[in-house]
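Contributing new complexes? Match this layout with S-adenosylmethionine.
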Amino acid sequence: MSTKHRNPWTTEVVADYVASHTAEPDALQQELIDETAAALGGRSRMQISSDEGAAISLLVRLIGASNAVEVGTFTGYSALCIARAIGPHGHLLCCDVSEEWTAIGRRYWERDGVADRIDLQIRPAIETLSALPLDEAIDIAFIDADKSSYLAYFEALLPRMRRNGLILVDNTLWGGTAAEPASADDDADTAAIKVFNDLIATDARVESYILPIADGLTLIRKR
Ligand SMILES: C[S@@+](CC[C@H](N)C(=O)[O-])C[C@H]1O[C@@H](n2cnc3c(N)ncnc32)[C@H](O)[C@@H]1O
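Output block (do not edit by hand):
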């Protein structure tokens, strides 16, 4: 299995090499990839790639995270990666607005034995996040929903993260267009990503790095 989301800054050979050496999905993950593609066609591109899933699992384990939040769950692939990595005593809060798409994920979480550590909330993510206590208890968060709300999600999450907690943000290179100068022709998502990246880069409350894997994955550490 190779990475699905080729980016323009990595050659096909290198992408396949990385995928085959560090990121082969197991049988259950592959089934979820295949079912998402069969059921949702072109929309399946919203699913994170297997190499990104492997990197996220590694980061979750690296910081010893047990309390996780996901914003944008879709058919549950990234949630499956996070839920496995937080271990049996971990807790993952998932935010999405689609019963239909997340119902696919629920079946796979059940089969994998991780469903009891996942709390899926179906309503706008900003409502779910705003209702969380300000107790700085979240170890890791993954933002992968509507791009125009990225800043709002970041601001809602930051005061709820523990010190040295990690916020991961997907699609921050946006196919490479994030690196182009802001333009009046930018669509709303492109403009939102550019504003988000500019603000995070200068935000003294955090330390960050844009990992150029998949479509760009920003790592943000709370100081
Ligand atoms: C890119 S997909 C997430 C992919 C997922 N992380 C995976 O690995 O398959 C984006 C998801 O965000 C959800 N979404 C969009 N707007 C939202 C909102 N306002 N609140 C919560 N979820 C939202 C969509 O329903 C969709 O499932």
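Reviewers usually confirm one structural detail per submission. For this one: Helices lie at 12-22, 27-40, 50-62, 77-86, 99-112, 125-130, 150-157, 188-201.
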